[in-house]
TrEMBL record:
Species whose genome carries this gene: Mola mola
Top-level lineage group: Eukaryota
GO biological process: Rab protein signal transduction
Keyword Nucleotide-binding: yes
Upper lineage: Eukaryota, Metazoa, Chordata, Craniata, Vertebrata
NCBIfam families given in the database record: small_GTP
One Pfam assignment: Ras
Cellular location(s): Endomembrane system
Identification of the protein by name: Uncharacterized protein
Amino acid sequence: MAIENKPGQDFDIVLGQNDSLGLSSQRDHDTSKPWVLKIIVIGDSNVGKTCLTYRFCGGTFLKNPEATIGVDFREKTLELDGETIKLQIWDTAGQERFRRSMVEHYYRSVHAVIFVYDVTSLSSFESIPEWVDECSRHSVGPMVPRIMVGNKCDLRDQREVSTSTAQCLADSYNFPLFETSAKDPAEKEHVDAIFLTLAYRLKSHKPMRLKQLSESSDRQLWNQREQEASICQC
Ligand SMILES: Nc1nc2c(ncn2[C@@H]2O[C@H](COP(=O)(O)OP(=O)(O)OP(=O)(O)O)[C@@H](O)[C@H]2O)c(=O)[nH]1
C-alpha cells in the first residue's frame, strides 16, 4: 500500500471561495490535477468512525482501533467517469476532550459530512441532532452534502435503533441513510457506496475552484500529522 501524497509533496485542495461548496461557476480546473474533496466523519465516540474509514481506504477491518485524538487523515483516490478524485477523509474524535482544540479545523472548507451512529446504541443515535447543530454552528452551508450512517449492523441481537426510526430522522433532515457494518466483509460494498455516493454528488456539481493546500493551515496540520505517522498508509 502506498500513500498518495508523500510528505512535502504539494497537492491541490478545493477551498470554498464563491459559495458554501467551494464551487465556482467557471471551469478553472487543471485536468492534469485531481479534484481533492474534504469529507469529515463525525459522531459519538465508539460508533465505528475509524473502522468505517479504514474499511473504505484500507479494505480491511481494523480490529483494535485506539480512540482518535484530534483527527486521523486518510486518503483514497478514485477514478470517476475518467476523472481523478482524491477523497481526503477526516476521521474525527468522538470524545469531547480529544476534539476540543480541533473543531474549527474539522469544519473549515469541508465538502461533505458523514454522521455516524451505532445501531446498538440508542444514545449515539440521539446525539445525531447535536452533531447536525454543531455543523450548522460552524457555518457548514445547506449545499454541503450530508449522509447519515448506522454502523455495527452485524450485531443483530443488540440492535437498539430500528431502520424505520433512523429513516424518519434522516428524512426530517433530507439526508440519505445507510446502514452497514465496518466489521462484516460482506458489507464492504455498502461502506464503499457511502463514500462513492458523496463523491458522485460532489462531482456532479459545477467545476471547482482550486487553491494550493500549501497556502492553508490545513496543510500545516496535515504535515504535522504525517510526522506523527498517524496517516493511514492506504
Ligand atoms: N461489531 C462491530 N464492531 C465494530 C464495528 N465498527 C467498529 N466496531 C468496534 O467499535 C469500537 C469502536 O470503533 P472505532 O472505529 O474506534 O470508533 P470511533 O467512532 O472511531 O471512536 P472514537 O475514535 O473514540 O471517536 C471498536 O472496538 C471496533 O472494533 C462494526 O461494524 N461491528
